[in-house]
What we know:
It is built from 9 helices and 4 strands. By secondary structure, it is mainly alpha-helical.
Amino acid sequence: MDEKPNSDTKESIDSNESLEQLIPVDEVIEEEIAESGHRIRHRGVYLLPNLFTTAGLFAGFYAIVASVNGQFEAASIAIFIAMILDGLDGRVARMTKTQSAFGAEYDSLCDMVSFGVAPALVMFNWSLTELGKLGWAAAFVYVACAALRLARFNTQIESADKRYFTGVASPAAAAIIASLVWCGVDTGLTPEQISKPAAAVMALITLVTGIAMLLNLKYHSFKGLGAEGRVPFAVIIGVVLLFFLITIDPPRVLLAIFGLYALSGPVFGLWRRMQKD
């Protein structure tokens, strides 16, 4: 004689089914068109590149928490770590052929935290609080420019020249802010020691750096440099010297590198215009 399941068993089954519906397992479904022309549906996400993206998000979030706790040097370094991880996730995805639409969107959202919100809050907590509303307004403008920069990049990713960025890339802009804060901390400046004129200069730099992300100027992306094929031996020597200089004085050398990079857009834009004339 068959036994009928009791009410407790039914409730247990129903609760397990409802629990499975709440757990986001394989909810991401992506479609791609194969060479034969048929659509292929993939469930789930690639683990390896998204691990690097998540680690970059963690570094950006840590930078925010560290700045709130007054640990500005650690916050600045965390932003640079997020930059390194941001550069690795795309390369790993291309090397392992695990690119996906989900990964691209996830990377963009994480960039907004690590290179938009984090540097603005680090700068605000270090020097802009002295200015009151003007301080947080300058920080907000930077965040808004980073969001607009990332949105424009996402809409132009298929048609844009991969060799160049339009406007300063958000990681490079974040590096300028982070290295500037790092330089100030390295010289012994604390938030209490920053005067209103100095805070106004920091606010102006924050505004200019944010607006630079939206400029219609070409910046070299350095994508693919050395990833495939060969490079001149002098490039390797240059990389070694660069690491040597960074080791001697990390904050100032990094500020000089990314500051010159930000200036390269207007300089080369003017040079190209003079050549046309």
